[in-house]
Design goal:
alpha+beta, globular, single chain, 158 residues, seven-stranded antiparallel β-sheet
């Protein structure tokens, strides 16, 4: 359990994340936070519990629909990736990279529907972190889950 307090709200979570990312970003590299992919889907960070979880909401845009008008599953995986990535960085207190991301789909999502996603650290480690994530619809029904393994990267000394 972390001794840091839970952080609420998109702007506060971003502020905390940017501060950490700056501590290990090489000189001359410009941070884009949130990254373009998260901006594209208008992901809103809602709550960060240090060392434990990160929660966000996102509305499934119509541009992510498949041929029959429901959310294409790959975009749910991208939503999970846009949530698991920052949580792994915050947990490692440095950069990480995905080794695996597996998604399981339970029910369809209609475009325009707001989803609540929560990523949770299952097992932190110095070299590998194991995470899980869930996505729920407005009725709090589970629509998808994800399991991810990330590698903690070692940054060269400057």
């Amino acid at each position: 359990m972390s001794d840091e307090a839970t952080i609420h709200g998109h702007d506060k979570v971003l502020e905390h994340t940017i501060e950490l990312f700056r501590s290990f970003t090489p000189p001359g590299v410009t941070l884009q936070l949130p990254p373009p992919s998260a901006k594209e889907m208008d992901m809103q960070f809602e709550e960060y519990v240090p060392g434990q979880s990160l929660t966000a909401t996102v509305v499934a845009p119509s541009s992510y629909a498949n041929a029959v008008g429901i959310l294409q599953g790959g975009f749910i995986s991208a939503m999970f990736d846009n949530l698991i990535g920052p949580l792994s960085y915050l947990t490692a207190r440095g950069p990480t990279t995905s080794l695996e991301l597996g998604t399981h789909f339970m029910r369809t999502v209609v475009t325009g529907e707001r989803l609540k996603l929560t990523a949770t650290v299952r097992k932190p480690g110095r070299s590998v972190i194991y995470l899980v994530a869930d996505a729920h619809n407005k009725d709090n029904k589970l629509v998808a889950t994800a399991v991810s393994t990330v590698q903690v990267l070692t940054m060269p000394k400057q």
